[in-house]
Amino acid sequence: MVDEAGEEGFVRIIGRAWYKLLFIVLAVLVCITVFVAGIWFARQDEVPGLDKTAVSYHIDGVKNTDSESILLPGMDALKAQAGDPHVKEALINPDGNECYFTYSIKLADTGEELYRSGLIPPGKAVMEFDLNRALSAGEYPVEVTVRTRDLKDVNIEYNAGNIDTHLEVAE
Asked: For this UniProt entry, which segments traverse the membrane (predicted)?
């Protein structure tokens, strides 16, 4: 091509530049779709009501080896401080159980619920928890109820166990 001054030049034709833009837009859309799908699939495995504070917990010699039964842990006195609702006690679901546990702690004389855990998977424990209210110093008889639910369908409830113990609240 020759311009008005008689100089020869070249014209660059950019006819396919929109393909690059389309490719970038499609790549971003694919990344967003994969990210959203990953979050959706991850939530499909999430168990509603699972106790988020439960951690892995193992006691040597405490394991359920019979798949036809449920091993309930023993429990000594629970201990707390006066005026402080925080309790540092382990509420465990022994390894080998084929069910979730939920713990409920109630005052034996009034039936007032002081604490309820979420679902605790086998081999995990809630290591510390907060009561619904702080108590004054003294010894309180409590009933700890352990409810059990199926691992595959949490709507299926198995037997429950009651442990009569006491809550020692120190000064």
From this structure: 21-42
pTM of the complete model? 0.72
Burial 142-167 (b: 16+ CB within 10 A, else e): bbbebbbbeeeebeeeeeeeebebeb
Structure tokens given for 108: 């034996």
38 belongs to a structural domain: no
pLDDT digits (tens, 9 = 90+) for 19-50: 778 888 889 999 999 998 888 776 665 778 88
**Domain range enclosing 74:** 55-170
Any domain includes 37: no
State the CB neighbour count (10 A cutoff) for residue 94. Answer: 20
User: How many distinct structural domains can be found in the chain?
Assistant: 1
Domain harbouring 87, CATH code: 2.60.40.2550
